[in-house]
Design goal:
This protein has 557 residues and is α+β, with helices and mostly antiparallel strands. The chain has 21 helices and 12 strands. The strands form 4 sheets. Strands 1-4-9-8-6 form a 5-stranded antiparallel sheet, with no helix packed on it. A 3-stranded antiparallel sheet has the order 2-3-10, with no helix packed on it. Bound molecules: S-adenosylmethionine (SAM).
Amino acid sequence: MCGDIDAFMTWFQSNGGTVDLHAMGITEFPGSGRGAVALCDIPADYTLFSLPRTLTLSTRTSSLPHLFGLNKWRAHKLHKGWVGLILCLMWEDACAHEQGNSISEAGLWSPYILSLPETFDTLMFWSEHELEELRGTSVVDKIGRQDAERAYHESLVPAIETAPSLFSPHHLPRWYSLEAYHRAGSRILSRSFTVSRWTSQDAEEQNDDGNDEAGAHDSEGELEANEPDNANTSFGSAMDVDELTPAEDHEDEDEDEDEDDPSDIAMVPMADLLNARWGGENAKLFHEPKILRMVSTKSIKKGEQIFNTYGDLPNGDLLRRYGHVDLVPLNADTNAARTAGVDSHINGAIATPGNPSDVVEIKANLVVEAVRARWETKGNGERDIAERIEWWLDEGGDDIFVIPHPNLQIGISYELPRELISFTRLLLPSTDFESVLKKGKLSKSKQPDAEVLGVLEEVLRTREAMYAGGTVEEDEQLLSSSSASFTTRRRHATVVRVGEKRVLRIARDCVKLLFEALQKNENRAGKKDRQNGSSDGGGMKRGAGTAEPGRAKKARQ
Ligand SMILES: C[S@@+](CC[C@H](N)C(=O)[O-])C[C@H]1O[C@@H](n2cnc3c(N)ncnc32)[C@H](O)[C@@H]1O
């Protein structure tokens, strides 16, 4: 077990924290570090532990901003993004490890800091070679190492150099290095909560609920149901906080009303010892005027793990923020899938567990590339495409399309993202852009026509080729390998790739099946026309690149 958990428990309880030690214990879970376990059957709405807000560690509770000087703190932009909290954690780390600190406020969180992990498997710590295994997945662009390091060099280092009494020059190489900065950043990324200030509005809402703030939750150690409904849940599904925002991103000196308040981001001792599993949440952190309270959200059997939620993220995001991946049985409804005609892949999906939140991101430029060839002999090509893209963006359209994991509980959904279909249709030369401009909108069509399907097939094929590794089956084969060179990081990267490739394959199947359905309808319409003695379009067979959208629509009616 990392850190001294006994010293931490003693510190927690002697500083206003309460833990029901009959109900909850901290233990080691193979593969996921420490976590909380139910020591007896626990009913829903039961308080497992609570702590005063003052025990959370944030730029609001740390004495460092005051000791440094609030004006100076702002001048160095330490009040923006995460860099201020990172510095507070680095300072606490230095105070916890170095003896003889003369500053009385220093080291208040030492037993907590000493209980935290020192090493991480999050993507920030992966080498280029290891990251290559994730090529093609959307997470690679989200690591943000350069932005983070710019904040270190441009905000943090100049700030600490101005205050040698707080940041001893002897401590700089060990406790204020780039490595220490990344360690603090990763501790925040994988363990922090959003704990907003208790406002008068919160108080009014609570009073409207008829809650007795002071007395209702005073039930330390007793197996009685509490009333979490009367408190507010911690923001954003507990752990779900925004990623690091470098100070440079916020040039304005004035606070933006809509901007998240970085002083809301807090380390919450004890609450950050809970692991999470996709869909497995059985406890949640609630906040009240003076305390935070971890409450069971359903009954938990003795011996079961007590799980918080990290927001049921896709595996790529879990790996980036927390350094692990989640695999759960996908529980596909085989009957629904069979009706939909996709037995083989559904069966594949059932056999191997996965993460139902996995998605595939398609950048708009892939669509642009695929459409470009269709413009070669028509219009002004580049200029027309550019005009349409501009219109799309002006209308609030996105430049990344997200293909979700199909809901296997209810069978495979054949719907491709509507935005992706609309964008593809908009860019095709057969779309009358003048008419779109006149109407101010694209005509709505839930299902793509054959021409759009042709482009989408090309886009999805190109997208598939962007991934490292082989086919889904080859990557799955790798996952069953026990070779020593197949490290945990490689395994995790392969899990992320396989998850996305599966979603992509189902999307490609979807395009194929929609295309076949169009052709079937068309043949049926042709047969009817022939029976009626009509000569046009009867029994025409088309490939993806040659179909006419108007005709396809007619065939569907
Ligand atoms: C908030 S901490 C939870 C406490 C942590 N296990 C510890 O030992 O301090 C989050 C970290 O726990 C681990 N973790 C949480 N849930 C996990 C899971 N389902 N599988 C593997 N590791 C998990 C990951 O290392 C993650 O970064």
